[in-house]
Amino acid sequence: AQRVTQPEKLLSVFKGAPVELKCNYSYSGSPELFWYVQYSRQRLQLLLRHISRESIKGFTADLNKGETSFHLKKPFAQEEDSAMYYCALRTTQGGSEKLVFGKGTKLTVNP
Amino acid sequence: GAGVSQSPSNKVTEKGKDVELRCDPISGHTALYWYRQRLGQGLEFLIYFQGNSAPDKSGLPSDRFSAERTGESVSTLTIQRTQQEDSAVYLCASSLQAGANEQYFGPGTRLTVT
C-alpha cells in the first residue's frame, strides 16, 4: 500500500527555535518524495524534493530509506514559516502517476 | 506567466444537482491532475491526464464523477447528482510532462453541497 503519514496535525514553536516536521512513507517502489507548502491565502507550492538535495528557505529534508522517513528540518524557525506543510510521495504504476499526500502539519511560529 | 487557473473559485449547489469544475493548466504542460481535499484531510488523487487521455481513473470515488480534457489544455471535472460528502476543495495541478519534478497547483474550487 502507498501511504504517507504526518503524525503531527499541529506544531507550534517559538521564533529562532529548531523545527522538525515528521513524515513517514510506505511504498514498494523506489520513493520520490516532496514537501509542499501552503501559506495563508496562497496556493499549494513545492518547497523541496529529495532528488535535488537542496535547501530552500533554510529547510532541508533527507530521505532515510531504512526508516522510511523524509522529515523536514530547519535550525532556526521564522514567523514567515507559519503555514501548512504537506509531505508527498510520487507513485508510478501502469502508465499512471500521482502524488500521495499526507494529511499535513500546521506549523505556527510564535514571536 | 500565468499559473494554473480554476473556475469557479466557489460553488454552492443543492444536493442532487450536477456541477462542472474547470481547470486551465499552464500552457504547454501535457500532464494534468485532479485532487480533492475534504475538511481536515490530505489531498486525495482523483484522475491523471497525459495529453487528452486518462490512463488512470482509479481515484474517481464513484461513477457520478467524470473528467475530460480537450486540446491538451482545459479540463473539466463533472460531478453528477451531487451528495453532501462531495463537499470539498477540488484542486487541479499540471506539470510539463509525466515524471516532471514539480506539479503546479491551481487555487482550487471550494464546492459546498447543501
How would you portray this structure in words?
The complex is a heterodimer of chains A (111) and B (114). With 111 residues, chain A is mainly beta. Chain A has strands spanning 3-5, 10-14, 19-21, 24-26, 32-38, 45-49, 60-61, 72-74, 83-93, 96-101, 105-110. In chain A, strands 2, 5, 6, 9, 10 and 11 form a six-stranded mixed sheet that branches. Chain A has a three-stranded antiparallel sheet with strand order 3-8-7, with no helix packed on it. The radius of gyration of chain A is 14 Å and the shape is globular. The mean pLDDT of chain A is 93. Helix content of chain B is 0%, strand content 50%. Chain B is built from no helices and eleven strands. Chain B has strands spanning 5-7, 10-13, 19-24, 31-37, 43-50, 53-56, 65-69, 75-79, 88-95, 104-105, 109-113. In chain B, strands 2, 4, 5, 6, 9, 10 and 11 form a seven-stranded mixed sheet that branches. Chain B has a four-stranded antiparallel sheet with strand order 1-3-8-7, with no helix packed on it. In chain B, a hairpin with a 2-residue loop joins β5 (43-50) and β6. Chain B is globular. Chain B starts with a strand and ends with a strand. The A-B interface holds A 4, 6, 36, 43-46, 49, 51-52, 86, 88, 92-104 and B 3, 31, 33, 35, 40-45, 48, 50, 55-56, 58-59, 91, 98-99, 101-108.
**CA-atom Rg of chain A in angstroms:** 14 Å
Task: Give average pLDDT of chain A, whole number.
Answer: 93
* Distance from first to last alpha carbon of chain A: 41 Å
Average pLDDT over all residues of chain B: 93
Report helical residue fraction of chain A. under 10%
Count of helical segments of chain A? 0
Structural class of chain B: mainly beta
Main β-sheet description of chain B: 7 strands, mixed
